[in-house]
Amino acid sequence: MDVITRETLFNRVRAWILEAGAIIRNQINDPLEINTKSNPKDLVTEMDRKVEFFFASKIKQYYPEHLLLSEEGYGDTFENVSGTVWIIDPIDGTMNFVHQKQNFAISIGIYEHGIGEIGFIYDVMNNNLYSALRGNGAFKNTKRLAPLNKNKTIHESIICLNHYWLTKNRIVDETVMQQLIKDVRGTRTYGSAALEFAYVAEGVVDAYISMGLEPWDIAAGRIIIEEVDGVTTNISGDKVNMLERTSILTCNPSIQKDLIHTYLLKAKK
Ligand code: 2AM
Ligand code: CA
Question: Are strands 207-213 and 158-160 parallel, antiparallel or unpaired?
């Protein structure tokens, strides 16, 4: 993709995501029909589908040769990541959207032949737009995000994770996770993977750990994190496959080795 095409695309996505966010804000107090998907905690509303349809229609109209990988069914099916692929979560943090009417985001990552080119995470209710164009830095609204402080230790870090991983479960040894919680300065749980990526990029937290995420939960976040020298792998430190469900560790690079070797590899069952 040449420079002009890439910047035009970036500016269009920026305008569309702001437009979609305004639609959500205007209807935030309307009655909602809520359904469940894979389990009783996995929620979806007509707004998830409406926002995804909004982007699917724009892509079809402006970029019919592009492909869409998305959560709510308007996307294409994939065997590989060749070509230009949009990876969209129309509402990341649907439970927050339903229960709190805040702390959710629209997440859009655009990949060309598997390389992340453009990332947007829109915190709709706070009207904060995190963005990145590969090689041009990451931004929160118009403010450039600084590269992450390289002198962090685990003991000075705030990490995001879901409390579920501190209970007895089949995926990780909860006693190792409990030790991690004791060793860090603090923990937070925001309930939106995309926003947690954005907070790591902003440097307001230092890591986000999840044991199971889908491509649309992470596609934009990875691109934004990379622009501030942050790192994203699975919990074993391996590169993540863009098309598969995966565990995730995204963090300040100065605590990555310690998190993986002192805790996460030992916790893995
Ligand atoms: P969602 O709201 O788009 O479903 C909550 O901890 C985070 O995990 C949110 O980003 C949420 O995204 C995601 N999430 C919730 N259930 C999930 C599931 N079954 N698989 C993958 N990600 C999930
Ligand atoms: Ca979603």
Answer: parallel
